[in-house]
Amino acid sequence: MDKKKICMVGDFSVGKTSLTQKFVNNVFSEKYLTTIGVKIDTVEVESTKLIIWDVAGRDSLSPINASYLVGAAGVILVADGTRESTVSGLLDIWAVVEKRIGSVPCVVALNKCDLPDWHVSESNLDEFASRDWSVFQTSAKKGHDVETLFHTLVAKI
Ligand code: G3D
Ligand code: MG
Question: Which residues contact 122 (CB under 8 A, 6 or more apart)?
Fold first, then answer.
């Protein structure tokens, strides 16, 4: 079976772990917790063995942690739609990703869409669209668009 590593990236507390858990709890998953603070879930999606890397800690892409990206076939960029800085911050995070592993397929989760206090500007959405990223408004809490998010990335890689 084809094996593909993907990485969850995004600011602290945007919902990387919650989205991963919501997704893998609906499918059979083997988990590993590595000593370097990365949680790895392995799931089968459409005859691909998907290996999901979810980093712990505040700054998922500090220069030290950027090596976490090596070998990834794609990334899920996660922002908290109620915190504008985490949305615009995706552009900086993408720059780190691109420098480290090149222009891999990517999907964007604007997470916490169940909350009323939504702050996603049109200019950020335009910027994402111009990069050909697939953008989803997700809720790890309600399960909204979580399956679609992961399946879209798998289709791209
Ligand atoms: P991280 O892995 O990116 O750091 P987490 O983020 O998955 O740990 O989530 C951080 C906090 O946001 C958690 O709250 C979690 O329950 C909450 N959260 C994640 N996704 C959603 C969502 O879709 N909707 C809402 N309303 N909350 C969400 P706590 O309070 O446990 O820190
Ligand atoms: Mg986490």
Answer: none
Q: In whole angstroms, what is the distance from residue 65 CA to residue 137 CA?
A: 27
What is the number of domains present in the chain? 1
Residue in 11, 12, 18, 110 to alter for ligand 1 test, most ligand atoms within 8 A of Cβ: 18
Q: Which amino acid is at 10?
A: G
Point out the ligand nearest to the CA of residue 55: 2
CATH number at residue 150: 3.40.50.300
Looking at this protein, which amino acid is placed at residue 47?
A: S
Cβ burial of 1 (10 Å; 0-12, 13-18, 19+) is: exposed
Residue 61 is part of which domain span? 2-156
Q: What is the pLDDT of residues 45-94, one digit of tens each?
A: 988 999 999 987 656 566 556 788 999 999 999 999 999 999 999 999 99
Backbone angles phi, psi at 39, to 5 degrees: -100, 130
Rounded-to-integer distance, Cα 153 and Cα 97, Å: 16
Task: Band the pLDDT of 27: cuts 50, 70, 90.
Answer: low
Ligand 1 in reach of 141 Cβ (< 6 A): yes
